[in-house]
Design brief:
Elements: E1 2-6, H1 10-21, E2 25-29, H2 33-40, H3 51-60, E3 64-67, H4 70-75, E4 79-82, H5 98-107, E5 115-119, H6 127-138, E6 144-148, H7 158-163, E7 167-171, H8 175-184, H9 186-190, E8 194-198, H10 200-231, H11 235-243, H12 264-277, H13 283-307, E9 315-319, H14 335-344, E10 348-352, H15 357-363, E11 368-370, H16 373-377, E12 382-385, H17 390-393, H18 397-403, E13 408-411, H19 418-424, E14 428-431
Helix pairs in contact: 1-3, 5-6, 10-12, 10-13, 12-13, 13-14, 18-19
The protein binds uridine-5'-diphosphate-glucuronic acid.
Uridine-5'-diphosphate-glucuronic acid binds at residues 122, 151-155, 211, 214, 218, 252-254, 256, 259-261, 263-264, 323-324.
C-alpha cells in the first residue's frame, strides 16, 4: 500500500520504518524541514536502538522517503497515518490537540481519491470522530474513512514492540475502513497476531486505559515499597509473590523512583481530564498522579538519609538520568526533580549516562559529565542509581567502593544485591522497598 505517515517523532518514525520493512511504500512527512533533511541523510534525531540502521536500509530499498508536504503526501497515498505529538495542555493537563488539528487541515485538501485516515496519536475518546467532521467541513466532497489505531510501543524497544505486538487495536466503523486496515496489517494477521476490532471511542480509550493501568501498577508497587521499608519487609519478595499469581503477572512491578517519560505522566493526567470533562471522576487515576509525585520527593529524603549529613558541597556520582534505559529521552524523568533538589542543596553532581548527556545538560547545567562510571565515582561521597542501564549492572563493586571518599550508595532501581554491596565495602546502602535494617542503615 502507499502510506503517508504524518509526524516523524517516536511513534511516526518507528511506524514509518516498520511499515516499510513489512513491504509498504511509505512517505513520512514532518513540518520541520531541518528534521526532514536530517532523516534524508539517514540520521535519526534521537536515540532508539536499531532504528537508524533500519531506516537507512528502507531508504536504500526505496520503500521509505521523507518530505515536508502533508497535502502532497496525502495525494500520493491510500492510507494517511496521523502520528503527531499530543503533549499535555499546561492548564488542565488534557491532551493538546493543536498539532493533530493542523495535520488534518493539511491532509483534507490532499484527498483527491478514496483515502483512509488512521489516527495513531494518543487522543481523548471522541477526537477521531471530531477529526472526521473537520475533514468533512473543510472538504465536503472528500471521499475518505477514518480509523483509530493506537500504538503500544515502548521507547528503547520500539522496533521490537512494533514488529511483535501483543495486540493490534483497530477502531473502525465501516467495511471500507476495515478492509484498508486489514491490508495495512496483513503481515501481522498472517502471523496470528491478536486483533481487537472496536468502535472509534473504544480504540482511543484502550490506549489511555492501558497506560493508566500500567502507571497504577507502578504507583501501587512504589507505595508498597514505602510500607515495606517501614514494616521491615522486602518489596522484591513481595512483588515476586504477587507476580506469580497468574491473575496479577510479574511485569511492571519494579519499585523505583517513580514513573516518567512522555506517556505515563501525560496520559494519566489526560485520563483525569477526560473524566472531568465527562463528569465521571477518575479517582484512581488522580491518586496515581499524586502518588507518583510523592514517590519522587520521597527519593530525595532517602538520599538525604543515606548521605548522613548536609548535601552542601557533597560530591555525588549519579548513575543514569534518562527516564529509563536504552533511550536519550529526559521527558518527565524522575531525575529532574530529584537532582534539582540536590543541586539546590549545594551538592556537586558527577553524572554518567550512556545517552543522556545531550538532553540532560539543559536540565543540570552545572553538573560534570562522565562516560565511565569509575571515573564519575572516584573521590565521591555517594553514588545514586537513577536509571538501570546495563552498564551499571556489571560494575566491579569493591573497586568502585575503594575509589570513593565515603562508600555510600542510594540504589533507587534496586539493581544491586544489598549483601554484595555490603561485602564490597559500602558502609551505607539505601534501596527502594528494602527495609533499612536489611540494607545496612540503622
Ligand atoms: C509506555 C508504555 O509501556 C507503552 O506500551 C506505550 O505505548 C507508551 O508508554 C506510549 O504511550 O507511547 P514508555 O513510556 O516508553 O512506554 O516506557 P515504559 O517502559 O512503559 O516505562 C515508563 C516508566 O515507568 C519509566 O520511567 C520506567 O522506569 C517506569 N517503570 C516501568 C517502573 O518504575 N517500574 C516498572 O516496573 C516498569
Amino acid at each position: 500500500m502507499k502510506v503517508a505517515v504524518v509526524g516523524a517523532g517516536y511513534v511516526g518514525l518507528v511506524s514509518a520504518v516498520c511499515l516499510a520493512k513489512i513491504g509498504h511504500d511509505v512517505l513520512c512527512v514532518d513540518r520541520d524541514s531541518s528534521k526532514v533533511s536530517t532523516l534524508r541523510n539517514g540520521t535519526v534525531p534521537f536515540f532508539e536502538p536499531q532504528l537508524e540502521n533500519l531506516l537507512q536500509d528502507e531508504v536504500k530499498a526505496k520503500r521509505l522517503a521523507f518530505d515536508t508536504d502533508t497535502t502532497e503526501a496525502t495525494r500520493a497515498s491510500n492510507v494517511v497515518i496521523i502520528a503527531v505529538g499530543t503533549p499535555s495542555n499546561g492548564e488542565d493537563a488534557s491532551h493538546n490537540l493543536s498539532f493533530i488539528d493542523m495535520a488534518v487541515e493539511d491532509i483534507a485538501p490532499g484527498i483527491n481519491s478514496f483515502k483512509v485516515i488512521v489516527v495513531k496519536s494518543t487522543v481523548p475518546a471522541g477526537t477521531t470522530r471530531r477529526l472526521a467532521a473537520s475533514v468533512r467541513r473543510l472538504e465536503p466532497a472528500a471521499d475518505f474513512e477514518i480509523a483509530s489505531n493506537p500504538e503500544f510501543l515502548r521507547e528503547g524497544s520500539a522496533i521490537f514492540d512494533f514488529m511483535n505486538p501483543d495486540r493490534i487495536v483497530i477502531g473502525t466503523e465501516t467495511p471500507r475502513a476495515h478492509a484498508a486496515l486489514d491490508e495495512l496489517y496483513h503481515y501481522f494477521s498472517e502471523r496470528n497476531c491478536a486483533f481487537v476490532r472496536t468502535g472509534l471511542e473504544s480504540a482511543e480509550l484502550a490506549k489511555l486505559a492501558s497506560n493508566g493501568m500500567l502507571a497504577a501498577r507502578i504507583a501501587f508497587i512504589n507505595e508498597l515499597a514505602e510500607l515495606c521499608e517501614t514494616v521491615g519487609a522486602n518489596i522484591q519478595d513481595v512483588a515476586r509473590s504477587m507476580g506469580l499469581d497468574e491473575r496479577i503477572g510479574p511485569r511492571f512491578l519494579n519499585a523505583g523512583p517513580g514513573f516518567g517519560g512522555s506517556c505515563f505522566p501525560k496520559d494519566t493526567k489526560a485520563l483525569v481530564a477526560l473524566g472531568k470533562e465527562n463528569k465521571v471522576p477518575m479517582r484512581l487515576a488522580e491518586a496515581v498522579v499524586e502518588s507518583n509525585e510523592r514517590t519522587k520527593l520521597r527519593m530525595v529524603q532517602k538520599i538525604e538519609l543515606v548521605a548522613g549529613g548536609s548535601l552542601g558541597g557533597m560530591r555525588i556520582a549519579v548513575f543514569g538520568v534518562t527516564f529509563k534505559p536504552d533511550t536519550d529521552d529526559m521527558r518527565d524523568a524522575p531525575s529532574i526533580p530529584i537532582l534539582s533538589r540536590l543541586l539546590e542543596n549545594g551538592a556537586i553532581l558527577r553524572i554518567v549516562d550512556p545517552q543522556g548527556q545531550k538532553k540532560g545538560k539543559a536540565h543540570f547545567p552545572n553538573a560534570l559529565w562522565f562516560d565511565d562510571p569509575y571515573a564519575a565515582a572516584a573521590g565521591t561521597d555517594l553514588i545514586i542509581v537513577l536509571t538501570e542501564w546495563t552498564l551499571f549492572r556489571t560494575l566491579d563493586l569493591p573497586a568502585l567502593a575503594q575509589s570513593m571518599n565515603e562508600p555510600r550508595i542510594a540504589d533507587l532501581r534496586n539493581i544491586y544485591n544489598p549483601e554484595a554491596l555490603r561485602k564490597a565495602g559500602f558502609a551505607a546502602v539505601s534501596q527502594v522497598g528494602i527495609a533499612n535494617r536489611d540494607a545496612g542503615l540503622q
